[in-house]
Structure formats: structure tokens, C-alpha cells
Write a structure and sequence with these properties.
Chain lengths: ~100, ~260
């Protein structure tokens, strides 16, 4: 089982997630893209753990999952707060700080 | 390259591309769920069964469902605006990301990764035990910080989602007074709305009730159903029968056994 394939898959998924963050204008879809990037990083961690013969990579991947869950909770709460005042989830409309 | 990897890699890239290209946010969420499940299978194959299960439970089970809940609140039909705010941003973004992907894949592809060692799960006493041993010894500080982070996130979500009540809560007596004041001013009926019609054919909420004079009561059907235009038609014969009954044109014969 070649670890290179897994890492290349992780790189592809990360790139797709990066395109999503840059191109999509819906805040929720942007969050999904960020989740995808975190998952790609996790896949690389687990693949390298397998290659190195230690469990450290799996532990780090677990921590990444926890942080991702916390990030999603806060992010979606912020999206909800913005939606309540602006009635939209598009990030182009959230220009309240702009003069 | 094993068959499992080929299938799961194809499906997960398909899910990621679907997330990127689908116009509606709900479809994006479902495509991401597909990607997550396939990544879980890959974890299982990489001798990380604990992470695979956590991936399914936490990501596809909790996080994606949270996304779907928020989508339901924000509006399922919310789709992207196709206007570009910054000129040329989309093309530049795609070019940059493709360059990033090419750079990563080529550099990883040309790198030599030593794979002489293998994970020895049996020696560690099992996957969960091995992770637990590391987590509570080498990474115990990270664990504590993560716990603090989770508590902060929970409190933060509650603070962000909390809405302060600006006006005092109306008591039942005040609501009643307001209702009757409205009745005095506009003549709006203070009681509850009439319930939907119940007939031998259907007793669904989309069936409007008939008033005693046989006319259709429009307020007996919930407003969303009316807006959707899915109010059931009234059978003319039924309506006419009710009119006849109330005007005394027809008389219901006594019970068939003649006791009445």
C-alpha cells in the first residue's frame, strides 16, 4: 500500500477545497470547503502515521477533528447571527464594517 | 494501489467536485457527506478504525447535519449569486488553486517516502488503546487545551445564538385584551380559526371546511398550503347536500331499524 497515493489524494481534495473557499459566495458552502480542506489534512496525517509506524499522526488527526467541530459550531452561529440582521447568507452582503 | 483506494478516491473527489459545482447549498452538503464517508473508509484501510468511526459519527453524523439544520433555517433555496464582486477574481482563484494542486501533487509524487515501517496495532494492544496511551501521556497538554476550546466554543455558540428579549412577555390576560381590542376595531374574530374540513372522502388539512350555508371557509386551511396552491377542491354535490340539509329541503330518514 503506497502512502504517496493517499497524500496525492489529500492534495487534490485540499486544492478543491481551496477553490471552493475562493470562488463560492455562500458562507455555508465556504464553511463546507474549509471542512473539506481540514479533512484532506487529516487524510495526510493518517497516511503518514501509517507510513511512519507511529500513532502520533492519528492522535493529531483526532485533535484536528475536535477543533473542526468547534469551528463549525462557532462559524454557523456567526452565520445565523448575520442572517438574522441581514436576511442573507451571502458574504458579499456582509459589509457592515465597511463605511 | 488497491481497489478500495481506487473506488473511495474516485468517489471522494467526485463528492468534492460536486460540492464545488452544485449551485444549491443543500446539494453541496450532501456531496460533502459523500466525501466524508469515503474518507472514513480510507481511514479504516489505513489501519485507523477509531478515526474512521469518529469520522462517520462526528462529520457525517453531527457536523453535516448541523450544516443541514442551518440550511433549513437560512433557506433551502439559497443559492450563490453569480455576479463577481471583484473583477477577475473567479478566474484568478481557479488558476491559483490549480497551480497549488499541481505543485503539491508533483512535489509529493517526486518525493521518496520511506515505507519500511508498519503500524503494529497488535503490539500496542489495539488501535484505541494506542491512541489513548499517546493522548493521555505525550499529548495530555493538547488534550486539556482542546477541552478548554470546546467549553469556550459551547459558551460562544450560546452567546451568539442568544437573543435578548426587548419587550416584556405578554401575559394571557394582555393577549386576550389585545385580541378583543382588535375585534372592536376591525371585527377580526377573537376565537381560534375554524378547523379544516372532515368528510367521508378526506379529513386532511388541505380540505377547507364548509360553513353552515354551504360556502367554503377560506381561513380554515393553513396559509402556507394556500400559498402553495394545494387546497383541495370541494365536491359540489357534498356542498349542495349541506345546503339542502340546512335549508330543510331534504329530511334525513329515521334509523333503518325503525327505532327512531
Amino acid at each position: 500500500m503506497d502512502v504517496t497515493n493517499y497524500v496525492i489524494l489529500a492534495a487534490i481534495l485540499f486544492s478543491i477545497g481551496a477553490v471552493g473557499v475562493l470562488v463560492r459566495r455562500n458562507a455555508i458552502v465556504m464553511f463546507m470547503s474549509i471542512e473539506l480542506m481540514l479533512n484532506a489534512a487529516n487524510l495526510a496525517f493518517v497516511a503518514f502515521a501509517q507510513a511512519n509506524g507511529t500513532f502520533d499522526g492519528q492522535v493529531v488527526a483526532f485533535f484536528v477533528m475536535v477543533v473542526a467541530a468547534a469551528e463549525v459550531v462557532i462559524g454557523l452561529a456567526i452565520i445565523m447571527a448575520i442572517f438574522r440582521t441581514r436576511k442573507t447568507a451571502s458574504i458579499d452582503e456582509a459589509n457592515l464594517l465597511r463605511a | 494501489m488497491s481497489i478500495t483506494f481506487a473506488i473511495c478516491a474516485t468517489l471522494s473527489v467526485t463528492g468534492a467536485l460536486g460540492m464545488l459545482l452544485s449551485k444549491r447549498a443543500v446539494h453541496s452538503a450532501l456531496f460533502v457527506a459523500l466525501t466524508m464517508i469515503n474518507l472514513a473508509v480510507l481511514y479504516l484501510q489505513l489501519s485507523a478504525p477509531f478515526l474512521g468511526m469518529v469520522q462517520i459519527i462526528v462529520y457525517t453524523g453531527a457536523v453535516m447535519m448541523l450544516f443541514l439544520f442551518v440550511l433549513m433555517i437560512v433557506g433551502v433555496d439559497s443559492s450563490d449569486s453569480l455576479t463577481e464582486t471583484l473583477k477577475g477574481q473567479r478566474v484568478t482563484a481557479i488558476a491559483v488553486a490549480v497551480a497549488l494542486g499541481l505543485l503539491l501533487t508533483t512535489s509529493i509524487g517526486s518525493a521518496v517516502i520511506a515505507t519500511d515501517t508498519q503500524l503494529d496495532t497488535v503490539l500496542a494492544g489495539g488501535n484505541v488503546q494506542a491512541i489513548a496511551n499517546l493522548m493521555f501521556s505525550k499529548y495530555v497538554l493538547a488534550l486539556e487545551v482542546t477541552a478548554a476550546l470546546l467549553v469556550t466554543a459551547a459558551v460562544g455558540a450560546m452567546v451568539l445564538a442568544h437573543r435578548e428579549r426587548i419587550t416584556p412577555k405578554l401575559s394571557q390576560r394582555e393577549q386576550q385584551k389585545a385580541r378583543f381590542a382588535d375585534y372592536a376595531l376591525t371585527g377580526k374574530h377573537p376565537g381560534p380559526l375554524p378547523s379544516s374540513g372532515v368528510y367521508a372522502r378526506h379529513n386532511a388539512v388541505d380540505t377547507p371546511a364548509l360553513l353552515p350555508d354551504g360556502s367554503v371557509s377560506t381561513i380554515s386551511v393553513p396559509a402556507p398550503l394556500q400559498a402553495r396552491g394545494s387546497v383541495r377542491d370541494i365536491n359540489e354535490e357534498d356542498a349542495q347536500q349541506i345546503v339542502d340539509l340546512t335549508q330543510g329541503n331534504t329530511v334525513i330518514e329515521g334509523g333503518q331499524d325503525g327505532r327512531n
